Amino acid sequence: MKEFTIGNEDRARVLIQALPYIQKFMGKTIVVKYGGNAMINHDLKAAVIQDVVLMACVGIRTVLVHGGGPEIEHMLKIIGKESRFVNGLRYTDEETMEIVQMVLAGKVNKDIVSLIQQAGGQALGICGLDGGLLQARKLKSPAGDLGLVGEISAVKTAVLDDVLSRGYIPVVSTVAQGVDNAAGQSLNINADTAAAQIAAALGAEKLMLMTDVRGILRDVNDPDSLLQEIKRSELDRLIKEGTVSKGMIPKVDCCRVALDAGVKKAHIIDGRIPHALLLELFTDEGIGTQVVADGN
């Protein structure tokens, strides 16, 4: 990461600009979905961890929900497990689910906890199985049977409330407890979806989705056409027009889930930008797209 030096007056200006945002969000809950390149690149990873620790230090109840697709893929290759896809979507059989649970709830989760604590924060790693946090049924997809892939049916926030009340940052891996048609099984949950449902259940102030794109662009071929703010009521029109398409549609759907449950704002931000979380939270300009409830 490129280093630069600023003078004391500039440092003071940065802090003063951040002050009203720190005051506004102190004591509020913000759910961050951490994934993409920011989990792979060493410098970006360090920046995200620093951001999360700072957020907690200024009194923000921060919940970090993480993915881990590249690490899962790496482990599957090590054991010689060939991935199977159904209409472009990964099929999760029992052996793959064992790897998912081992990698997400084990290595990736605990690595993040360790990094937070090395940066001076206090974190506790949990997965959706702990305290019955995430309960899910098998996902019924138009693409066909995807195996042990789940859709969340309930979020029991008691374990998160307890961890937050003790001053820890919950670091959540998205393995869920199967119910109904998946009783007794563990299910793999999309991390964006899990973060949205957790934000909704906690009544969070914000949901922040870290991605590998700038946000929602008016023209996907023009990185300068970023839509900085969108009303909830505009989302259907943007999808119909094709402004929101392909991989952005599921992320917009997650924003919709959160806002419809009472979350005030959902943000889609570029995790490839160092300190993206702080830039979005504590500056007037922000860096990504914020989707706001119509009443805001």
> What proportion of the residues is helical, as a percent range?
25-40%
Principal-axes shape call: globular
Count up the helices: 9
Within CATH, the superfamily carries the name: Acetylglutamate kinase-like
Overall mean pLDDT stands at 92
Biggest β-sheet: strands ordered side by side in the sheet: 5-8-2-1-11-13-14-12
Oligomer: single chain
Give the class-level CATH name.
Alpha Beta
Q: Please count the beta strands (DSSP E, at least 2 residues each).
A: 14
Main β-sheet description: 8 strands, mixed
Q: Would you give the CATH topology?
A: Carbamate kinase
Order of helices and strands: HEHEHEEHEEEHEEEHEEHHEHE
Low-confidence stretches: none
Q: Provide the β-strand percentage band.
A: 15-25%
The radius of gyration over CA amounts to 19 Å
What's the architecture in CATH terms?
Answer: 3-Layer(aba) Sandwich
Q: What is the first-to-last residue Cα distance?
A: 37 Å
Q: Total domains, how many? A: 1
Structure classification: alpha/beta
